[in-house]
Amino acid sequence: MVCTVYLTEKPDLNDPILIEGLPGIGFVANIATLHLINELKAPMFGEIRSSSFQDFAVTSGNGKARYPTNELYYHKARDNEERDLIILYGNTQALTTIGQYELCGKILDTAQDLDCHNIITLGGLRREGKITEPPKLYCAASDPQTLKQALDLGAQIIEGQIYGIAGLLIGLSPLWNIQGFCLLAETPGYYADAAAAREVLTAANKILHLKADMTRLDKAAETTHEILKSFGMTSQPTEEKEKEKEHYTWRI
Amino acid sequence: MVCTVYLTEKPDLNDPILIEGLPGIGFVANIATLHLINELKAPMFGEIRSSSFQDFAVTSGNGKARYPTNELYYHKARDNEERDLIILYGNTQALTTIGQYELCGKILDTAQDLDCHNIITLGGLRREGKITEPPKLYCAASDPQTLKQALDLGAQIIEGQIYGIAGLLIGLSPLWNIQGFCLLAETPGYYADAAAAREVLTAANKILHLKADMTRLDKAAETTHEILKSFGMTSQPTEEKEKEKEHYTWRI
Amino acid sequence: MVCTVYLTEKPDLNDPILIEGLPGIGFVANIATLHLINELKAPMFGEIRSSSFQDFAVTSGNGKARYPTNELYYHKARDNEERDLIILYGNTQALTTIGQYELCGKILDTAQDLDCHNIITLGGLRREGKITEPPKLYCAASDPQTLKQALDLGAQIIEGQIYGIAGLLIGLSPLWNIQGFCLLAETPGYYADAAAAREVLTAANKILHLKADMTRLDKAAETTHEILKSFGMTSQPTEEKEKEKEHYTWRI
Amino acid sequence: MVCTVYLTEKPDLNDPILIEGLPGIGFVANIATLHLINELKAPMFGEIRSSSFQDFAVTSGNGKARYPTNELYYHKARDNEERDLIILYGNTQALTTIGQYELCGKILDTAQDLDCHNIITLGGLRREGKITEPPKLYCAASDPQTLKQALDLGAQIIEGQIYGIAGLLIGLSPLWNIQGFCLLAETPGYYADAAAAREVLTAANKILHLKADMTRLDKAAETTHEILKSFGMTSQPTEEKEKEKEHYTWRI
User: Fold this and answer.
1) Chains meeting D at 3+ CB pairs closer than 8 A?
2) C75: distance to nearest CA of chain D, Å?
3) Could you report the predicted ipTM of this complex, rounded to two decimals?
């Protein structure tokens, strides 16, 4: 299987923006994109499977066993302001470094095929101690012009590493002639953080101009929390920190 | 070698059900399928080898060094009630996520080639504290119709992850146009649990209608215990729990 | 690179026996085969390189940086009693399960090409506490007939796992139509154990009938100790035990 | 992606020496080669990408998200004394053994294509306690003749392992008909060590005869420190030691 993209249709999109929403710190991107999919009634048009995803099945209350997967949704602009979207949603990132590179490659291949030239990755930036209200936004970008877009949304420049797909996708995007920025909100990081998700989505929407009701975002956070519970992933700050610490160990 | 299926014959089976019986929690599936193979005198018709299996040899009292392997057996219905079976038995699952996906793919390929449309995976569900007598059954399925079959056997819906081959096989089966359910019995999980094995097998037999004597199942449990001893795997609850804990650590 | 065999010549051998001598517990096989190579003045005829070997260079007193490698030597019988030999010597085994399977496959391919039908793997069997003098011998084999050969050398049957190449090679050998046994001597395991090496070699020689002086085996043990020192591998019983413990953790 | 070399041009070089400067202990090679690139205004002519590099993006003060990469620079001799150079600089080595072997293979392929027959790898040799002033130099080489070159620079022979790309590249180089030595300076190892970098570079320059000002090397050390900070890699002696300890655990 390795990593394969299965498209059920190839939507006809006009200069779409890809929004990345895989699970990560605070599940910020996950909540935000689930909300978008719900609000926009975005149709699913594809799936990405990888043998670098978790090797278990997950069930929810209905007893249906699901394998871990990433899903692709699209949205056609409903007026002159809205932008066409590709939304990447899922319940896992790849488990290995090689798997993450392979996944990014497949996502960028797919984006390129759909005439996409811009990517926004969303995420959380873990902060110890008290988070300001509203949480501060941070950004990085593939190039100065795209960075300016992100700064104009009220984000400030992040220094250091941006872990996972949110960072790697932006880092690699220029190799596919795609520009992108990541938008991260401060979060304690160990629960499904609706406030952080609202912050990144509201900011991104200054570019997307989507007519989407942000009040129901709490529902997406609750659903995400339920999904996480079935993944055994609620309130585990200790393990996550250890995982994070691992990233600091370089091979030298 | 990677992962390869070697068939010594291609049995002519009529809508067979595949029963998965690889080692897992409480060795429930392992005991149950070993018992079936013994009782039904099921002939072995194939073997699956993988370089993701353990890289050691195992010997038993007779001094024969064996490499880790999975084996395929079949059973032809002996009357109008019994179902044709494919039985997957073995002494290991794959050691890596990629290896598990590859193994599942090979199993499902083989099932499809043998005109199999239904899979039952067996297993244990680890429970701390006292297990009810008889142990409770849990299930999940690839689809609502198959779930109903499992619920009719007296199992209740499991929520959360189903680790290993028992979960992944059911999760992935629809991609091969195969339906399936898993049937898990409560177990403390750190020894070869004959009671749990009897419970899942007795329940599954309401569908399979096999004329198999369940009284001798204790013998299969003993044999399994002996095999495990040669694998150095008896009474190691601590390591198993740590392994399990690992599964909870997501990469995010 | 992955795993590749480079032969500088294809020696013309008559029903040779392959002796495996890669580093393992107590470096028993390593010492024994180094001694054979020295005593028999066996010419090197090939090398096996693998990207699953250690990724560092080793230097000894002469400042030459060497990459980790396995080497192939041969010996032509010098009289009617001696057997032709293929000797596998090296400074590492593969670091991963997949790497070990690949290495075994390459070794068995090479053996088959050289008309070899018999393998003897040597090794140590770690024992806590006092080792009897001389150390006891243990064995396992690919088949009953070959097992008898090993038992006739004074070894008793080992039950349980045989780790590493010494076990896997014997386990897999029948798939290449090769028969083999492993011969393990008790050892505390954390230093280059000349006594254990002498014991396995003397026993094996009842089959090989080599006119080799065993008195100089201590020199091979010293050289092995020197090599190990350059690998930073002398007296580290703790880490080795942890590694060993790891092997007991199954994925279930 | 795996591991791929992208050349923007193929420079016409005369018997160039390849200088390896990837991050390692004390970032000695990293500082030294960054200084050379700055001083010589060496043009970049290629990039090596690998899915065995870190799977994150790094940003610095300017907000540009960069993926981990290795870069190739060249220098044309400006007089009869200077040597043509290929400089390998980067912000990571590969994370896995297989990735390191693959990376070395690609580097040596590229060197061979550019008519390079000599490699110098630079690095630090971690020493506990007080480092002598100036730090002592150590070396190892692919062959006796090249070793003599290194000894003539005032280095003494290192015994034991040389970890990472600095060792493996020298160890493997003869397989590409390339000769090389490594030059390591004593260092406490857990910060960007300008003194050690100056020492190896000054020594190597006795061969390279580069007209390069060593006074500005502190600037390269500062830049390296800044880059490391953005990688979260300043002052983490504990983790590094643990990593190092891991290397001592052999699979046996």
Assistant:
1) A, C
2) 26
3) 0.84
